[in-house]
Fold this protein.
Amino acid sequence: MSTLVNKNLENLFSDYQSNDFYCELFGNSQKGLRPDTQAIIERLSKLDPERLRQRSQDAERELYNLGITFTVYTQRDVIDRILPFDVLPRVIDAADWQKIESGVTQRVRAINHFLHDIYHEGKILKDGIVPNELIVGNPNYRPEMRGLQVPHGTYVHVSGIDIVRGDDGHFRVLEDNARTPSGVSYVVENRHLMQRAFPDLMEGTGIEPVSNYGQKLHEALVEVAPAHAPHPHVVLLSPGSYNSAYFEHIFLAREMGVSLVEGRDLVVENSRVFMKTIRGLVPVDVIYRRLNDDFLDPLAFNSESLLGCAGLMEAYARGNVTLANAVGTGVADDKAVYAYMPRIIRYYLDEDPILDNVETHICREAEGLQYTLDHLDELVVKPVGEAGGYGITVGPKASREELESCRASLLEKPDNYISQPMINLSVCPTLSDDGIMPRHVDLRPFAVTGKETWVLPGGLTRVALRPGSIIVNSSQGGGSKDTWVLRSSQG
Amino acid sequence: MTALLSRQAACIYWMGRYIERAENLARILDVNETYSRDSRGGQNWRSIVELYNDNNRFDKVYDDYGDENVLRFYVLENRNPSSLVSAVQSARENARTLRPLISTEMWVHMNVFSNWIRGTREEDLREGRLSRLCMQVRQECQAHTGITEGTFYRDESWYFYQLGRMIERADQTTRLLDVKYHMLLPSLHDVGSALDVSQWNALLRSAAGYHAFRRVHPTGFAVPNVVAFLLFNDAFPRSVHASISQFESQLTELRQKFQLKGGANALDELDELRAVLNNSSVDVIMSRGLHEFLDWTQQRIISVGNKLSADFFS
C-alpha cells in the first residue's frame, strides 16, 4: 500500500498500510488508485498528525457539550454516552454512489411491492417464490394489515440498508432495516462537526450536502398524508427521553419543524388522532413513529404498554392517520426474508438486483443445506429468528465441538438457518493512538419514500475502533465517520 | 405554526423554575454562610431546612442536623430534589425534552453547567470554598438567563419560561426575607445593633439589591425600609411585587398574543395577591408578623401555580 501514496513527502499516510483489505480511500493494491479520490487524498495528506489530534479532541469536546449522545442501558441506571467520532472522512466517489443510490432505490421499491402483496393477494406466496409459512408464521407479520390501503402503496417511508464492501471492491447488502432505522442524525451532525473542525479541508471539494434531510423527510411525510388533510399536520412519536435513540428523535423533530410527541400527548376521539396542547386538542394527520409495532396501541397490540396511544390502530385502519413506517414492515427486514430479496426484486420488478446480497445459503432448501454442511468451517451460520447476534456460529473461528453442535442444529431444524461466507470488510484510514491505522467500516445509507424514493447522499459510516475488529456496533466500541459523497462533476 | 404541547409547556415552565431556584438557593446558602461567619459565629444551618419545610425529607436521609449534613443535603444530595445538583440536573433533563424548542446555545450552556456541577465534591463545601461555589452557581444561572434572553425564539414557550422564572423568584424572595426575619432574628435587644445591620446588609447583597437600595435610601438604614424594598419596590427586579407584576403582564400578553382561553383563574388569584401588596404598609405587616405575611404570600403563589397548571399543563 505504501507504494501507492506519495513517497517523496513525509505525509499523514506515510506509514499507513491497509494490509490486504480493500481501502475506502486508496482502493486496493491490485486495482490501483481510485482516480476520484486523488484530490481528497492530497489534501488529507498535508494534515499534520498533531493538529489532527488536536482538532479531534476539540470535536469530541464539542460533542460532549452538545450532549450528542446515545443511551446505554445497564442494570441499574441509564448512562448517556457519546458515539466516538473519527475525524478522517470516508469518501465515496460518484460512480460508487450512483450504484448505491440506484441499488437502494430498487430495493425499497421491491420491499414496498412485497409488503403490499403479502398484505393483499399474496401472489408471491402462491407462486412459491417465498415460502408461505415464512411470512404468515413470522412474528413480525401483522394480520391487522391485511387488506388495508396505504397512500401510494408506501409501507416503508424511511429505510436504512446496511452495506459492506469486500476484498473484491463490490458492495453487498448485509441487512435491510425497514422498521425504525436509527443513525441519520449522526450523518448530519458529523458533517456539521467536520465543517467546524476542518473548514479548510472541506472548502471547494464538491461534497454532496446532507443538511436537507429533515426537509426531504417532511416533504415525503406530507405526500403520504390521508387525503382529507389539505395542510397535513405531521408529528414525530417517540417512546421518550429514556430511549436510546432519543437524541435522534429530537434532531429529526427539530429538522422537520414538527412536534416531538409521546404517547401520553396523544388521544384518539371518534377514530381521529389529536395531540394535547395549551390551546386544547389539535388534530394529527401523519405520525413518524419511532416506536415498535408492539407498543403503538395497547388496545391492538401489547396491552401492557404505556408508550403508545389507545385507539391508534383503529384510526389508522380507517385511513384517518398515516403511520410511517406502516405497521407490519418488520416482516421485510427479517433475516430469513433477506435471503429471498434477490428473488423478490426479480419477481416484482423484472430486474436484476443492482446491489447483491452477501452470498446467502438458505438451509430450508436442500441445496443450501447441503452446501452449508459441506463448508461448515468456512461459513457463518445464523439463526433467522434470533436478534442481536445470538446463536451465530462463525465457522473459521469455531472449535470442532462447536461445529458439530452447529451441524446437529442444522439437521434438526434446517428452516431456522441461513449461512454466509465470512466477509473481509473494507477499511478506512482512522486516527488511533498508534497513528493512522486501517479500521473496518460498513455503511448505512438512508432512503426516504413518499411518492418516490430519495436517498440521502452520504450515510452513516460506522467504524470498528479496535484493531482487527469487524464489530462496528456502537454499543461494542464502534464509532462513526463523516461520509463524503463526491459530486459527479469531480474527478 | 404548531401549537405547544401541554407537556412541553409544563417542561419549559419548570426549567425556568429550576434554574431560578438554583440561583436563589445559592444566594440563601451564601448569605447563611455569611451569617455563620459573623462575630457570633456558629450559625445553625438547621434553619435552612426549616425555611424550606424539608424536615421530613431530610430525616429520611440524615440522622442529625450537623452543618456538613445540611450543606451536603442542599448542594450535592441526589436524594434531595431541591439540592443545587438536583435542580440543575432537573433543568437539564427538562431541557433535553425541550431540545426541539430551545436554542442550541441554551442547550450547550445547560450541558456545560450540569457537567460542571456534577463534578462538585465534598471539599468544595468546606469553609471558605462554599462562597466561591455559590458565586459560580449564580453566574451560571445568570449566563443561562442571558443566553435565553438573547437566543430563545419568542413563541408561546418563551412566555411559559418567563412565568416559571417569575413565580419562582417571587416565592424565593419571600424565603430569603424569612431566613433573616424569622430564623435569624437576634434577641430583641440586638435589633438595630451593629450586628443586626450587618446581617440586613448581607441579605440585601445576596439579593443583589444593596446598591439599588442605597439609591433609594442614600443615608440611614432602617429595617422596615429593607423589608419594604424587597417586598414592594417596583423597580427592583427581585422584589416580590416586581416579580408578580412581570408574571401578570407576561401571562396577559401570552393570552392576548396567542388567543388562549386558559390562564384566567391564575390571573384572578393573582389579583388578590397584588391588591394586598399594593395596599399594605410595611409597618402594619411587621407589627402583625412578617413571617405570617410571607407564609400567606407563599400560599397564594402556590395557588397561582396550581391554577396555571390546571389550565395549560394537563
Observations:
- The interface with chain A takes residues 2-9, 93, 96-97, 99-100, 104, 107-108, 111-112, 115, 156, 258-262, 312 of chain B (CB under 8 Å).
